[in-house]
Amino acid sequence: MHKVRVYKSEENLPREDQLAFKIAQVAADPVEVSPEVEEMVINRILDNASVAIASLNRGPIVSARGQALAARPGPGGSGSTVFGVDAATKVSPEWAAWANGVAVRELDYHDTFLAAEYSHPGDNIPPILAVAQHMGATGKDLVRGIATGYEIQVDLAKAICLHKHKIDHVAHLGPSAAAGIGTLLKLDTETIFQAVGQALHTTTATRQSRKGEISTWKAHAPAFAGKMAVEAVDRAMRGQTSPVPIYEGEDGVIAWLLDGPDARYEVPLPAPGEAKRAILDTYTKEHSAEYQAQAWIDLARKLHREHPEFANPENIEKIVLHTSHHTHYVIGSGANDPQKYDPTATRETLDHSIPYIFTVMLQDGEWDHVASYAPDRAQRAETVALWHKVTTEEDPEWTRRYHSLDPQEKAFGGRAEITLADGTVFTEEIAVADAHPLGARPFAREDYIGKLRKLAEGTIDEKELNRFIEATENLSSLEAGDLDLLNVTAAIELEKAQGGIF
Asked: Where is the MmgE/PrpD N-terminal domain (predicted)?
């Protein structure tokens, strides 16, 4: 546990005591990756590919891909691949990180970690993989880099809250991706230290991207952080330095963007020689929606089967979802966003509205990443009528469990209280999603592959998909130059991007 606070300039905090330097030390530590961590890295590469494939012709991806394809690789390496595009077409690694990062995030359908801050640690994979391809790294190098990216992002999310100060959660992603790239390339501690500082400095932004009318930038935000991480490492390798101390300085991130000059944090990081295992604390999504909606979707599915009468708004007086502070204020009625009850709202807004999500699952009994958000689905009269009867309330016990450090107690669900038209009150609760490691049906390798096959249907030829799955499952045996095998070529015509400057 590393104590972190703000220091005045005259206190002259030694470099080795700065959080960015401690992160760099972890990244530079050549500790071996355990078999279970490697197994989960493979699962998450499969998971990222599945959600990226499902979004290949959505607007933000088309735009980001168009920008990336205009950026050919320079002389420093062989270039990187872009999801859906034939691997023979290479682009500069920072732009591959951008395009692939947008594709992975667009549907809000990959892995998550929730603690003091929330995160999607799978966002580390596109920038680390892009650099690995460009620089001719091996599969083992890639595994080590991804393990570091997950470790640093999870450790920062455990200790430092960003959303309380309306700072977007990608502020933890810039440093983690830079650290992961440092591990991948076997860089020295000083170089990684400078890269981490630059990556943090360039990726702090406000939470307005996830508030009110949510725009297409929601998918771009983590991709931008990944792109900045690649550029930060490049500059650090060229001898360029970063603002120091970036976290603890009196004009630094903590003092002015977070808890202020009196802030105190304790950040957990692996000791020297200790394995990086944080990826095992993360969990993926069975459903395409914000993670805190996962358990509620599963509960609504159960209620749909057992109480189909709940789907009829005429039978319901009100539904109150008692849940954590975070769920109530971010995706619940506590956000005070009228858009969360607007039938014409964007998909990006609806997937952050638990009243909408719970209603649709209660009525349909199944969740689809496209159909469940379609305008005609959102605007259905009986849906709107029931939707407007659903609210959330914070429950202190569910808030406590949300923040618990005990994985056996930590929970992301709550208690549904359904008052029927005749006055009868029905209650049922759920702690974690079915796919959670402690849930009813924890995700395993076959589930990741099943999710990939489902989302790739009609988009990727089966032979090509089988090739990709085989390459990914044999990740550690991939030699230098083989990492292009971790790309897939779409069997559909990819849409052309609208013209811009590039």
From this structure: 18-265
